[in-house]
């Protein structure tokens, strides 16, 4: 009987059990494999894929302008004045080449090396525009070629009808326009973020010098009248390319070399372009690109750059007696503080890791970049000895600070061991020793810290009150950070070490929650803390361990019923739910006293965390079933860091300009 049953099971698994996905079906089945996910990152990646094609035309010398328009209902329109996608019959598919490019994976002009349509290309896999087509509710492509305008429409990647001529144009007029609407059955959110797109297009304009990018947000059309819309329009054009990019990254900074060191050379059909500038800051800003594709995880071009930078600086420093005989050579880590560099290479056959292209893997690139940087940087130092000396002195100061920081850190650990404890005395630790379920609240103020300690769940919630003035990490070396009365307890409590000894595996709490007042001072403290974590514990931010608690602004009470409002809109909604009339709400909004009773309702505005008793703090801000928290991302930290540099950095002029520009819209809490 057993043998018979086995045979029946095997029969059930036959040819009919194997699912064959044809055309663009694999993309709709597994979109994450092609665009990284179906969240906001994936949604914006749809735009990047089409923009990559525009850039490829620009790099090939066939396009001078590209435009991205955001239209009503989150429709995107992207145009360029390149050659236009070919429309003639394709010899393999026996269909229009236009339809082939839009409906067949790996169909494009990017696979034939020197004989292909592109010598270099960011869209290595050739799946970009076809993937966008597959993941769109609808897509329309229009091509200007040979004095005609050709068009084809698609529904979820399937052509509605054949390619057709819909008009005429000038014979010399060429280009492509792709209009699409992302499929809301695929994406969890189809609302595009204008700021994200601005940042991407600005970067691409820096990398494609002499090319113009335009961005228009036309989503706020008034009453359907296209002549009366609230439009946001930006244009980017940079003659100096990545040298302008470096200056943009260093705006508001004191720099060591007034103009970026610019290196550009072509070796073995690989074009290397690098701009370098040092500042008096304590952080590194390095952006690496291959064929205009951002590589956040670096790759062989970054490895070659770092090796050459280290060797060249050490060689020059020894030769010119800037390093003392007894001093050790500078390490790669000693050269990072204050370094701003943009690395952009163009090569025929880039080898990226995955469709999202986070890391470049071409082994030959490392040696080429290393050789070019060593040669060009040595020549620059010889011609500009003052800049060379200033840069190397900065690196030597960093090296000495690291040595001092290492000694200070070791002293901290030794002191803790002598006391029989390694955790700071102000820390109210949790009972659990499982990092994945433990939370550390970093709390502003003694009063709030006391309430948090009383109101918390002691099993998994630890409380560390902030003590003393927070150090400005933007102007502070590592040795001063580890000695700081305010930051030292945090470093010890986290348990991961700092600097060279940083080990993320030793993290004692997987949720680190910044809890400060919902006022100007609280925002300032959060910004300081965010910058601290971004500078010294970036990996904690990248892995999603940092959160911001959201305390309520108001307690609204009617009889025994209590509700909390976290934003002004919450207050208005709750008041309406409590039956307050529109006129009364408006009078309340215009009143300076939010504690007024209106229609039997009491409104208490919280000026700080310390005004809440332990039960209220638990219910509103610490109870996992009801609290509101924001997880910090790298973009959040970088945005906060940029504002912090502007407002707290050494340069007065940019800060003054910022204050003058925004004074009229400032919200003062007096």
What does this structure look like?
This protein is an alpha+beta fold. The chain has 3 domains: 25-236, Histidine kinase-like ATPase, C-terminal domain (Heat Shock Protein 90), CATH 3.30.565; 242-401, Ribosomal Protein S5, domain 2; 437-550 and 631-665, Rossmann fold. The protein is built from 21 helices and 25 strands. Strands 1, 2, 3, 4, 5, 6, 7, 8 and 11 form a 9-stranded mixed beta sheet that branches. The chain has a 5-stranded mixed beta sheet with strand order 12-13-16-14-15, sandwiched between helices. A 5-stranded mixed beta sheet has the order 18-17-19-20-25, sandwiched between helices. It is globular and about 75 Å long.
Identify the notable features of this structure and list them briefly.
670 residues, alpha+beta, Heat Shock Protein 90, Rossmann fold, nine-stranded mixed β-sheet, five-stranded mixed β-sheet, 21 helices
Give the gist of this structure.
This protein is an alpha+beta fold and 670 residues long.
Number of domains: 3
Average pLDDT taken over every residue: 83
Distance between the termini: 86 Å
The CATH C-level class name of the largest domain: Alpha Beta
- CATH topological fold name of the largest domain: Heat Shock Protein 90
* Principal-axes shape call: globular
Number of strands: 25
The major β-sheet equals: 9 strands, mixed
Which structural class best describes the helix and strand composition? alpha+beta
Task: Assign the CATH architecture of the largest domain.
Answer: 2-Layer Sandwich
């Amino acid at each position: 009987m057993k043998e018979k049953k086995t045979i029946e099971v095997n029969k059930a698994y036959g040819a009919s059990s194997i699912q064959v996905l044809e055309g663009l079906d694999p993309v709709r089945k597994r979109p994450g494999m092609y665009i990284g996910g179906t969240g906001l990152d994936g949604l914006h990646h749809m735009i990047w894929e089409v923009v990559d094609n525009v850039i490829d035309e620009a790099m090939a010398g066939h396009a001078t302008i590209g435009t991205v328009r955001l239209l009503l209902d989150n429709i995107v329109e992207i145009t360029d004045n390149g050659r236009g996608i070919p429309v003639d019959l394709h010899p393999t598919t026996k269909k229009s080449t236009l339809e082939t490019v839009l409906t067949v994976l790996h169909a494009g002009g990017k696979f034939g090396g020197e004989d292909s349509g592109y010598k270099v290309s960011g869209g290595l896999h050739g799946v970009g525009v076809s993937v966008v087509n597959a993941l769109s509710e609808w897509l329309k492509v229009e091509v200007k070629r040979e004095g005609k305008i050709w068009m084809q429409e698609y529904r979820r990647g399937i052509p509605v009808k054949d390619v057709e001529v819909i008009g005429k144009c000038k014979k010399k007029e060429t280009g492509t326009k792709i209009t699409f609407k992302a499929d809301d059955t695929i994406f969890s959110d189809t609302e595009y973020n204008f700021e994200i797109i601005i940042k991407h297009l600005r970067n691409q304009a820096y990398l494609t010098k002499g090319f113009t990018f335009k961005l228009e947000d036309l989503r706020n059309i008034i009453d359907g009248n296209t002549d009366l819309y609230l439009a946001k329009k930006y244009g980017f054009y940079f003659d100096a390319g990545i040298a302008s990019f470096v200056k943009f990254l260093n705006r508001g900074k004191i720099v060591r070399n007034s103009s970026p060191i610019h290196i550009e050379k072509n070796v073995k059909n690989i074009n290397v372009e690098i701009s370098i500038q040092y500042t008096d800051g304590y952080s590194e800003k390095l952006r690496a690109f291959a064929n205009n594709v951002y590589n956040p995880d670096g790759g062989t071009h970054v490895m070659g750059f770092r090796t050459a930078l280290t060797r060249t600086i050490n060689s020059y420093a020894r030769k010119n007696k800037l390093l003392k005989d007894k001093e050790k050579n500078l390490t790669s880590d000693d050269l990072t503080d204050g370094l701003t560099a943009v690395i952009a290479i163009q090569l025929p056959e880039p080898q990226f890791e995955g469709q999202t292209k986070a890391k470049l893997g071409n082994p030959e690139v490392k040696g080429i970049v290393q050789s070019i940087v060593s040669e060009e940087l040595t020549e620059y130092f010889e011609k500009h000895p003052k800049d060379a000396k200033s840069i190397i002195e900065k690196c030597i100061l960093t090296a000495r600070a690291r040595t001092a920081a290492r000694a200070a850190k070791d002293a901290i650990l030794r002191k803790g061991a002598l006391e029989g404890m390694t955790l700071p005395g102000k820390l109210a630790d949790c009972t659990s020793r499982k990092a994945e379920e433990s939370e550390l609240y970093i709390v502003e103020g003694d009063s709030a810290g006391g309430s948090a300690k009383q109101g918390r769940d002691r099993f998994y919630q630890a409380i560390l009150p902030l003590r003393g003035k927070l150090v400005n990490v933007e102007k502070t070396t590592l040795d001063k950070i580890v000695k700081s009365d305010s930051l030292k307890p945090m470093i010890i409590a986290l348990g991961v070490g700092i600097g060279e000894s940083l080990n993320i595996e030793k993290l004692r709490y997987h949720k680190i929650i910044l809890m400060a007042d919902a006022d100007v001072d609280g925002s300032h403290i959060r910004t300081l803390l965010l910058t601290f974590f971004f500078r010294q514990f970036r990996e904690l931010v990248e892995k999603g361990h940092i959160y911001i608690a959201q305390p309520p602004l108001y307690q609204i009470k009617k009889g025994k019923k209590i509700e909390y409002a976290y934003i002004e809109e919450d207050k208005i909604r709750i008041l309406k739910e409590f039956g307050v009339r529109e006129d009364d709400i408006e009078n309340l909004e215009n009143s300076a006293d939010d504690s007024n009773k209106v229609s039997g309702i009491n409104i208490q505005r919280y000026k700080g965390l310390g005004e809440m008793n332990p039960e209220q703090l638990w219910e509103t801000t610490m109870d996992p079933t009801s609290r509101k928290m924001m997880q910090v991302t790298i973009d959040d930290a970088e945005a906060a860091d940029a504002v912090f540099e502007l407002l707290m950095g050494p340069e007065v002029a940019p800060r003054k300009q910022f204050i003058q520009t925004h004074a009229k819209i400032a919200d003062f809490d007096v």
